[in-house]
């Protein structure tokens, strides 16, 4: 299973790199970035779109026609629309989530940005997000974009993942550590 995930990521990476190179050469990276967000939202919100990309019941022509109509309706740039049609023609639409993720990574790298995943027990206020973003930017030397979500099971605190580093200041993990320490004593 891990091997097929690796193959999918590799396939998606090649399409993403090609599209990124086209966008960079034409100066359309910022526009592409916004369209990626819209496409990702559409993919997450539409079970029909996910079915289209994953189901073997749709043939190449049906997939190509559908993504062409979607691209037209969303007003996607010709480069992105053509890439999606090519992926459909080559039966590679199943890699769409990996394609979007890899393309976002390439764009962020080109802009000197990085993304931090933040899981908190309560929704962060705008001020808290700004302070956390500034702190992480100072630490990483890059502009930091926050992906924030709420997980009430943390009880309090937060977990921040920036690149390969993870900081867990949640009450849940502190309680687990305390419980382990008490087991060792008794």
From TrEMBL:
Organism: Paracoccus thiocyanatus
Source superkingdom: Bacteria
Cell membrane in keyword set: yes
Record-linked Pfam families: OSCP
HAMAP family: ATP_synth_delta_bact (MF_01416)
Function as written in the Swiss-Prot or TrEMBL entry: F(1)F(0) ATP synthase produces ATP from ADP in the presence of a proton or sodium gradient. F-type ATPases consist of two structural domains, F(1) containing the extramembraneous catalytic core and F(0) containing the membrane proton channel, linked together by a central stalk and a peripheral stalk. During catalysis, ATP synthesis in the catalytic domain of F(1) is coupled via a rotary mechanism of the central stalk subunits to proton translocation. This protein is part of the stalk that links CF(0) to CF(1). It either transmits conformational changes from CF(0) to CF(1) or is implicated in proton conduction.
GO cellular component: plasma membrane; proton-transporting ATP synthase complex
Protein localization: Cell membrane; Membrane
Chief subcellular location: membrane
Keyword tags: ATP synthesis, Cell membrane, CF(1), Hydrogen ion transport, Ion transport, Membrane, Transport
Leader peptide range in chain numbering: none
GO molecular function: proton-transporting ATP synthase activity, rotational mechanism
PROSITE patterns xref list: ATPASE_DELTA
Membrane topology qualifier: Peripheral membrane protein
InterPro entries xrefs: ATP_synth_OSCP/delta_N_sf, ATPase_OSCP/d_CS, ATPase_OSCP/dsu
Protein name as catalogued: ATP synthase subunit delta
Similarity annotation: Belongs to the ATPase delta chain family.
């Amino acid at each position: 299973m891990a091997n097929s995930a690796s193959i999918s990521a590799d396939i998606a990476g090649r399409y993403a790199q090609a599209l990124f190179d086209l966008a960079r050469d034409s100066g359309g990276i910022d526009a592409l970035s916004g369209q990626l967000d819209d496409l990702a939202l559409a993919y997450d919100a539409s079970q029909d779109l996910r079915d289209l990309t994953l189901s073997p019941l749709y043939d190449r022509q049906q997939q190509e026609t559908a993504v062409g109509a979607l691209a037209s309706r969303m007003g996607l740039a010709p480069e992105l629309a053509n890439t999606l049609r090519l992926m459909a023609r080559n039966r590679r639409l199943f890699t769409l989530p990996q394609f979007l993720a890899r393309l976002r990574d390439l764009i962020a790298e080109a802009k000197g940005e990085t993304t931090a995943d933040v899981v908190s027990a309560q929704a962060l206020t705008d001020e808290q997000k700004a302070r956390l973003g500034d702190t992480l930017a100072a630490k990483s030397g890059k502009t930091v974009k926050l992906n924030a979500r709420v997980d009430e099971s943390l009880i309090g605190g937060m977990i921040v993942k920036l690149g390969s580093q993870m900081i867990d200041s949640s009450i849940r993990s502190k309680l687990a550590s305390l419980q382990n320490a008490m087991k060792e004593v008794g």
